[in-house]
Amino acid sequence: MIKNSTETRNPQHHFAKPNNNMHPLIFFNVLILLSSTSFATPCESNGVFCETLKKRSAENYPRKICVLSSEGFEPVWYLLFEGGLPQRLEKIPDSMMSVYHIRVSPSQQFIAITSAGEGHPLINVVALSSLLQQRSPQTLVELNPYPGSINFIRWEAKASVERLIVESDRLLTEQNQDIYSWQKFAIELPSGKKTALSSELQQLIPYYVKLLRKPENSADEIIEILVSLATTDDRKLLLQQAFDRETQVTVKATLATVLERVAPK
Fold first, then answer.
1. Which residue among 71, 109, 128, 185 has the highest number of C-beta atoms inside a 10 angstrom radius?
2. CA 184/CA 153 separation, integer angstroms
3. Which of 62, 60, 115 is CA-nearest to residue 52?
């Protein structure tokens, strides 16, 4: 897992573009590495990340999609065919400068790309067909937890819906608020619908009120989060109910501040 940067400014999104001036030694090494990888298993070594593709009846269907991520160079993408040299992709997907994980979905409709720039990770989900057909890659979902972090967990397939399972320390279903712990989320494809898998994140107002009772958490930060969440009458009602039930003096005072700020002007 990539550690968060201590910088507070927004990360610079240096999206990758084809680099035709790749160092000859690196180009030679990638040809050897890709040509020597087995078609049966994924490859993740020496800065080369490959995903095996299910064999299709169409002629010249690639058996692997690979990316070379080398420090100081932009990512380079290839298709690997049986009995042939790798074919470089000139139209490549959006990512940060350093790609360190790729996974194709069970249906082979999507590919999840985990990358990082300036220490900030994100996950892009791209339509795989657009890559294989050498068209401009279509980014369907971008999961950017800045200033937090994110990890790929797995793909799941249920009927006609595929779900990408990730974990993050940010509230991906809202506005990337801090959730003070690592939690799992599901993203449905192709709709992009995000769902928190933890039952405690189903009711966000009680979740953050509970966090207020922990002295190690910043009350000022949680006040701002509660204010940003209390945008509906239902959530404002939950805030009022939490205030009415609260017995801790400091927490009750904090909730009073939140209620004052979200009250109609």
1. 185
2. 9
3. 62
CA distance 3 to 106: 29
For residue 227, pLDDT beyond 50: yes
Residue spans per domain, the chain: 203-265
Report the distance separating Cα 73 and Cα 19, nearest Å: 8
Residue type, 189: L
Give CA–CA dist 27/30, Å, rounded: 5
Measured torsion, CA atoms of residues 245, 247, 253, 258, in degrees rounded to the nearest 10: -30
Residue 140 · residue 126 · CB < 8 Å? yes
Higher pLDDT, 49 or 230: 230
Total residues belonging to the chain: 265
Task: Say what percent of the chain tops pLDDT 90.
Answer: 53
Q: Whole-prediction pTM value?
A: 0.82
Tokens (6 digits) for 143: 């999961």
- CA distance linking residue 52 with residue 87, whole number of Å: 15
Rg of the chain, C-alpha, whole Å: 22
Cα–Cα distance list, 127 to 11, 20, 133, 189 (Å)? 25, 24, 11, 10
Tens-digit pLDDT profile for residues 17-68: 333 444 544 555 555 555 555 544 455 556 788 898 887 666 667 888 988 8
